[in-house]
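Justification of resources, computational component.

The compute hours requested in this renewal are based largely on the per-chain cost of generating structure records like the one below. Each record pairs the submitted sequence with a full C-alpha cell output. That output is archived, and it is also reused by downstream analysis tasks.
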Amino acid sequence: MVSGVCFSYLLPGFLRFLPLYILLAFALLIGGLALAVIITGLCERQRLTGDVEPAQPPYPWAASRYWEATRADAIRLGLQHGGDFATKKNASAVKGLASMFLSPDQQVIVSISSASLVGAKVKKTVLRSKFANGRVLESSDNSGAWDLSGVIDRSVLLNAGIEELMGMHLQRVRSSGTSPMPFSPTAVLDEFENIDLDRGRRLVLLKLARWADPQQTSIRLTLRGSLMLVRKMFSEMGKLRAQQHRAAIKRAGSRPQDRA
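The structure output for this chain reads:
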C-alpha cells in the first residue's frame, strides 16, 4: 500500500516534466550529431585528385549492382564513355569504382560511383556542367557532401535514375539562360577533378579549409569550415524533407528490370 501511494504521488510529477526530458534528449542527439560532423570535418582528408586510376575487368574491387545497372543505363542513353576507374589500393581508405561519361554535346559530365568506407556503402551519380564564369551546376541522386565554397550549385533528386536525373539537370541548365562550356572528351576524369580542385582552392582562400599535402591535392576543413558545414547540413536536411516520398523509390540495381 505504501509503495502504491508513493508511486501514484510521483507519477504526475514525472509526467509534468516528460516534455522537458524529451526536449533534452533531442538536444543531446542533435548536439552529438553536430559534434561528430565537426570532428570529421577537422580530421577527414578530402582527396580532390589523384586517388583513382584507370581500371578494366577484372576490377580490383567488387562492382555493385547499382554501378553496373547505372553504367548500362548511361550507355543505353547514348552517353559517351570516358573510362572506368578504381581507387588506388594505398591512396585512400575508400575502396570503389567510378565510371565517367559525357553527354553527346559534351556539356554534361557524368560520374557514376560505388564505394565502401569502413563497411559503409556509398552509391551515387553526379552530373556537372561548367560555365565561363567558373560556376558549376551539379545534380545528384544522393544527398552526399555539401559545397561551402560557392563554386558548385548543387541540387539533389533523391533516388533518381540517370535518365530522370539528366532530365532535371538539363532543365537547370536551360533555366540558367547560358550555354555551358564543353568538356574535353579525351580527359573526362581530369575535367571532373579540376572542378574539385577549384572548389578546394576557393575553400582555402576563404579560410574554410587548409591544404593537407604539399602537392595541394587534398584538404582538411578548418574549425570555421567545420562549423559552417554543420549549418549547411541542417539547412540541406530541411530541404530534403520535401523529398521524403522518394525514399521508397528503388535505386538502380534493385529495380525489377535489373534482376533479369
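The beta strands are 46-47, 52-54, 80-87, 95-102, 109-117, 120-130, 136-140, 152-156, 209-211, 218-221. Residues 44-258 form one domain.
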